[in-house]
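#struct-queue
[09:14] JT: dropping the first one here, sequence first, then the structure tokens:
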Amino acid sequence: MHKFTALKDGVNEPLLAEVRKHVAEMLKDFFDPEDLTVVDDITAFSFGSATVQIQVVPWHTEDVLVRVFSYLAENADPTSGELGEKLLRLNATAPMGAFSLVFDRTIMFSCALPGSHLDPNELLGAMQTVAAYADQYDDLLQEMFS
């Protein structure tokens, strides 16, 4: 029987730099330079009415995460009983990724992928999913919860 090992807290700086470079190269294959905006360590592109962002962040000593996300609506009322229920129902239909309410009352849709062995298909799939859901739901959620 194989033993399940626990993740060890820590930041693998060399891997973080390597994956950031790898993701940047993949994005060059997917987009023309003028389609991407890079600010600090976040790369963004527009899709319909949504903005999708990609960021490589620390996870544990052996891997990093590639986060693909889009902010959909601001100032959502977390005390609204229907907010949580609607987001959970939407999550049940998403093939990957999830809707969430972040600390500043913003609704977002995001996917997170392990970065150390990330291939172009995985990144493209996450970007396509986030872009499609963000473009489909941003206006609707802003209307419903803002």
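[09:21] JT: and here's the second one, same format:
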Amino acid sequence: MSHPDSRPTHLASDADLRQHIERLSLRLTQIEKLYRSLFEDADTPIIITDHVGAILDVNPRAAQFIGATKDSLLGKNLTSDALPPTLHGLAPILPAAHYTPVLRRPLEMSAAGKEISLDLRVRHVDYAGNPAIQWVIHDQTDQRALDRARDDQLYMIVHDLRNPLSNVVSSLELLRESIRNPNMTPAPLALVNIALRSSRRISLLVESLLDMTKMEAGQFTLATTTARLDTLIERAIDFVRPAADRKHIPLTVDVDPSLPPVLIDVNMIERVLVNLLDNACKFALPGQAVHVSARRVDQEVHVAVRDEGPGIAPEDRLKLFQKFGRGSSALGQTTGTGLGLAFCKMAVVAHGGQIRVESEPGKGSTFTFTLPVE
């Protein structure tokens, strides 16, 4: 004999089950909508294919990256030659993607004459109830270029430090020998001067690197004092004169005698002058002069460093003052680390001034920076 309450209990269980199924169905619909929203709005290119490479879906970012409309891509196979060049690199990976649930590969390719670096992440997914492959494409082109630039910069920094450091070591070794043998040449004072100049060049680069890091982090405070620019210019000239003399480069100075004093961080502005003069001497040919001038223009002082060298290629002028932007001269010479000019811009801007370059291939370059009158 059945229990009198068995029927109502059974009906209640069926009702609960239906409600549970409805809740699950609603939840599933919400999840699908969320996935579709994330898929459509993602900043990263995403492609969905079946396991033989037929394209089932692409998000808007992928269509933009590929350079084609979504409708023109759907149904096409990754192995098709008719696909845009940006997809040609995926076909060789398809067999591994078919058998490997999760896969990550770097991919270097060329499209539209541009080298592209991709970080490709592939995984098996369910798409509309069927097994599929999701291709997530991370464009690493800019990051790889930045990494290469940093590696180049590091090499150039080490190179720029190694030469003066070698001079310091050699001078000290010779100085030690001169103490043991007073009759040897060169004289001890000359060796000390070489070591001092080289040490100061090392200090110049290291201080600039440290100050740039602080300025970028907003942690740098100017140690300002009233100073005369004609004195700073003479000190900067004295610093680069040995290098200029070795290349027979005349250094000329034209400073307005009525130039007013300026409120500056003396150490920083002196390094700006040294960097600009050093660059000018580096690219001037033997016998070509480097000129320094300073004038007051309204409420600013304009300081210009002009050389008679090969000039700067037009496409390089905008990136000269970037921290990792290395340009080249009109004759194809590299411009060193580029950190000197990046420091110059940061230092001048920190003082409320501006810096610019004017150049014409074959006719030299002029770097001009401004400082507010006190």
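[09:30] RK: nice, looked through the second one.
[09:31] RK: The two ends are 108 Å apart (CA to CA).
[09:31] JT: good to know. Residues 141-180 form the longest helix (40 residues).
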